[in-house]
Amino acid sequence: MSDTAHPLLPAATPLLRSGPDAIQVGGVDSTDGLLVTPAGGGVAALLRGLDGRRPQRAVLVDAAGAGLDPSAVAVVLDGLRAAGLLVDVDAADLLAADAGPAATARTAAELPAALSSSAADGSSWQGRRRSVVVIEGATRVGTPLAAVLAASGVGRVSVRDPGRTTAGDAVVGGLTAADEGRPRSLAAADAIRRASPLTDLRPPPDGARADLVVLARAWAASDPLIAGIHRAGVPHLVATVRGETGTVGPLVVPGVTSCLRCADLHRRDADPRWPALAAQLTAADSPSSGATVTCLLTAVTAAVQVLAYLDGTAAPATVDATVELRPPDLAPRLRRWPAHPACDCGAVSAGGRSASPAGPSLGPETATSGRVHPRQGTMGD
Ligand SMILES: [Zn+2]
Description:
This protein is of the alpha/beta class. Helices cover 34% and strands 15% of the residues. It has twelve helices and twelve strands. The protein has helices spanning 41-48, 56-65, 70-82, 91-95, 101-116, 124-130, 142-151, 184-195, 224-231, 260-270, 274-281, 292-311; strands at residues 6-8, 15-17, 23-26, 33-36, 87-89, 132-136, 156-160, 212-215, 236-242, 245-252, 321-325, 332-336. The strands form three sheets. The protein has a seven-stranded mixed sheet with strand order 7-6-8-9-10-11-12. The chain has a three-stranded antiparallel sheet with strand order 2-3-4, covered by helices on one side. α7 links the parallel β6 (132-136) and β7. α2 crosses α3. The model is unreliable at 352-372 (pLDDT under 50). It binds zinc ion. Residues 258-259, 261-262, 339-340, 343, 345, 347 line the site of zinc ion.
């Protein structure tokens, strides 16, 4: 525990009376709890007062003033920490949150999860607040994803889309039926504001680059935009629903992990017709697609990957891989896309897969990367 630590017991942590003289803190779901005893009314007030706004030494002074033994209180705080119930807020985390009571209330719900995934230096919340994410495509995935990232504390979220909203674009948490006919980028900005009113919605300033770009519209590996993003060294993540299948990944860190062209080359190896087929997939504006549950699960799965990357504390599962979500069960399937030896992106010489962190297991993997075996269909005789 550092000197600047401000102990926070999230307000939603249950404090349960256990007999006349004990309080069980948490431990209701699959988490550890802590039984505090003896525990009179002063102890309950002390626990509820751990709002992350006072440094621990002030907490101990106040506890002594309330007639509690400071050394016993310090032991209880250590016990709560060891059980994972208490998070330590750095003073800079408080400064990195938006001001005002409404923003404070919103932050209170987000902060514990962000802090408990913190790196040793406790920087993940402040890192999120400083981050700039650009979403390409105000789609049924892109707009709810932008709103989720803003609500999760990402400081600057900008959605790029030159089109106008159609009735089919409306989705829970994203564009609405009332947005039909409006520029999609403006309607997406409103969706973000509904979730997080104070988030900075401006695009990155001239000359500055985003920390991450999410491709939330139909894309092709030959897309000049993607080539430009890759050349500029900007990390990017695919998050789309094509037909009925949601796809999240790969997360590309240029020159380090396998890229979109690597995946494309694997598909070409598996099926020489792939380049001609792929060109047709993005030739025309694709209509809005994907069931609401598929789009939202895709958006949230992508948000988890983005936050893991920005926080720098967890290995995104989509490095050198994609997660696919297909109805009806939408169970995540992981497909590996290692760096391709014929690709000039540098991931192979950088070590390719061996350099990338191993993500958590998400489900069954396909036996061979990128292999597609279409069923044979005949038209008439
Ligand atoms: Zn590559």
